[in-house]
C-alpha cells in the first residue's frame, strides 16, 4: 500500500515532490505502525530537503492518550540517544520515567543528524514485527532519496533553462546583425559572382536562427510535444544524418533488430541522439565500431551508446554535461548540456562512463509507457 503511494506520486507526472507529499507519506507509515499491537506510539523524524530542515510526524495508537508536552520535549531532545546504530537496524533504547519499551530504527544520517523511526510498545516486539519496522524504514529511506533526487533535478533543470534562454537570445542578437550585413552585401554584389556566396551566408544565418529558436523552446519545459515514437527508427534517423562522416571514417554501427515505443518529444529526443552519436563518430578511430543497445524493463528503457575512441578523462566525467565544456575543436560545449536538459524534462536520466577496454559510453534511462503493457 505505501509503496504504491510513492510510485503513484511519480507516475502521475509530478516531476517534483512537495513537502506535503513527504509528510503525507510519513503520516501513512506512522498510522500503519501504530495499527500493529503492541505498538502504541510512532514518531518519524526525517529531513525535508525542500524546506532544508528536519521534520517529524507523530501518531498514537487507537485509544492511547497523547503524551504531555514535557514528554514530547524529552523525546525531541534526543538525550536518550546514547549511540547511533547503523541505518535500517532496530535497537532498543531506555527512556527516563518510561515503563514501556522504546525502539529506534535509523532511516539514514544526513546533515550530521539522524533520521529515524521511533516506536514505543507495551511489550517486546516479535521477530515479524521487528522485520515490519525495518521494512518501513527501508521504504522511508527510499522515499526520502526520491525527494532528494527530485529536488536535485529541479535545481538542474532551472539552471539549464536559465542558461539556454540567456545564451539563445545573446546568439540571436549577433546573428541578426550578421544577417543584416549579409543581406546588404548580397544587394551590393548584384550581377557579381560573389553574390552567390553572400546568399549562402544569408541562408546559413536563417538555419542557425531556426536552430536557436528550437534551443530557446527547449529551455521551456512546458513545450514538450509528446507522442508515441519508435526508438529504433529515431536512432536510425540520427545515424542516417551522420552517414557521410560514418562512411568517411569507415565506421561500423551496431544496432539491435528489436525496438520499443517511447512517449517522447520526437524533435527534442532526436537532438539527444544526434548529439551523442555525433560525438561518438567524431572521437571514433577509423574503421572503429559504435554500438547502440537498449534493454526494455517494465517501467523504463535503458539505452547505451558506446564508441572505441580515447575515452573520457576524470575531468571529462565531472564536466561533460557542464555548459561550455567541450573537447571538440570549435565545439560550443552546449550539446550535452541541452541533451541532459531534454532527458530531465522527460523524467529520465543520463550519465557517461569510461569502458574498461577503451572508449566512452553514454547511458540514458527513459520512462516506458504503461499503456503499452
Question: What do these coordinates show?
Answer:
There is one protein chain. 46% of the residues lie in helices and 22% in strands. The chain has helices at residues 2-11, 19-34, 69-77, 127-188, 195-218, 231-241, 243-248, 266-283, 314-319, 335-345, and strands spanning 39-48, 53-60, 91-93, 101-110, 113-121, 226-230, 252-254, 261-265, 289-296, 300-306, 349-354, 360-367. The strands form three sheets. A five-stranded antiparallel β-sheet has the order 2-1-5-4-3. A five-stranded mixed β-sheet has the order 7-9-10-12-11, covered by helices on one side. The protein is elongated and about 100 Å long. The longest helix has 62 residues, at 127-188. It has two domains: 2-151, GAF domain (Beta-Lactamase, 2-Layer Sandwich); 225-373, Histidine kinase-like ATPase, C-terminal domain (Heat Shock Protein 90, 2-Layer Sandwich). The chain has 373 residues and is α+β, with helices and mostly antiparallel strands. The protein is built from ten helices and twelve strands. α2 packs antiparallel against α4, α6 (231-241) packs across α8 and α8 packs antiparallel against α10 (335-345).
Amino acid at each position: 500500500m505505501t509503496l504504491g503511494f510513492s510510485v503513484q506520486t511519480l507516475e502521475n507526472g509530478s516531476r517534483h515532490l512537495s513537502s506535503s507529499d513527504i509528510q503525507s507519506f510519513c503520516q501513512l507509515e506512522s498510522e500503519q505502525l501504530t495499527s500493529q499491537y503492541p505498538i502504541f506510539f510512532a514518531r518519524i523524524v526525517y529531513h525535508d530537503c525542500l524546506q532544508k530542515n528536519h521534520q517529524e510526524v507523530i501518531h498514537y495508537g487507537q485509544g492511547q492518550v497523547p503524551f504531555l508536552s514535557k514528554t514530547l520535549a524529552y523525546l525531541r531532545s534526543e538525550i536518550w540517544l546514547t549511540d547511533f546504530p547503523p541505518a535500517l537496524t532496530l535497537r532498543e533504547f531506555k527512556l527516563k520515567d518510561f515503563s514501556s519499551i522504546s525502539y529506534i530504527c535509523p532511516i539514514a544520517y544526513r546533515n550530521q543528524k539522524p533520521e529515524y523511526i521511533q516506536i514505543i510498545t507495551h511489550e517486546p516486539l516479535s521477530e515479524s514485527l521487528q522485520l515490519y519496522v525495518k521494512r518501513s524504514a527501508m521504504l522511508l529511506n527510499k522515499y526520502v532519496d526520491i525527494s532528494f533526487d527530485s529536488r536535485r533535478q529541479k535545481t538542474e533543470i532551472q539552471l539549464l533553462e536559465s542558461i539556454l534562454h540567456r545564451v539563445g537570445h545573446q546568439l540571436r542578437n549577433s546573428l541578426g546583425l550578421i544577417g543584416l550585413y549579409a543581406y546588404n552585401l548580397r544587394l551590393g554584389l548584384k550581377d557579381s559572382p560573389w553574390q552567390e556566396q553572400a546568399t549562402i551566408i544569408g541562408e546559413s544565418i536563417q538555419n542557425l536562427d531556426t536552430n536557436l529558436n528550437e534551443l530557446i523552446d527547449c529551455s521551456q519545459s512546458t513545450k514538450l510535444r509528446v507522442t508515441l515514437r519508435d526508438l529504433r527508427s529515431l536512432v536510425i534517423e540520427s545515424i542516417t544524418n551522420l552517414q557521410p562522416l560514418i562512411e568517411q571514417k569507415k565506421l561500423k554501427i551496431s544496432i539491435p533488430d528489436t525496438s520499443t515505443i517511447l512517449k517522447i518529444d520526437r524533435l527534442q529526443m532526436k537532438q539527444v541522439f544526434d548529439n551523442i552519436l555525433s560525438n561518438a563518430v567524431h572521437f571514433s578511430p577509423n574503421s572503429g565500431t559504435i554500438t547502440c543497445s537498449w534493454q526494455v524493463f517494465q517501467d523504463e528503457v535503458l539505452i547505451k551508446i558506446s564508441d572505441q575512441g580515447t575515452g573520457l578523462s576524470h575531468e571529462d566525467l565531472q564536466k561533460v554535461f557542464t555548459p561550455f565544456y567541450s573537447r571538440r575543436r570549435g565545439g560550443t560545449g552546449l550539446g550535452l548540456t541541452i541533451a541532459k536538459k531534454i532527458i530531465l524534462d522527460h523524467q529520465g536520466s543520463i550519465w557517461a562512463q569510461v569502458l574498461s577496454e577503451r572508449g566512452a559510453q553514454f547511458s540514458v534511462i527513459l520512462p516506458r509507457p504503461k499503456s503499452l503493457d
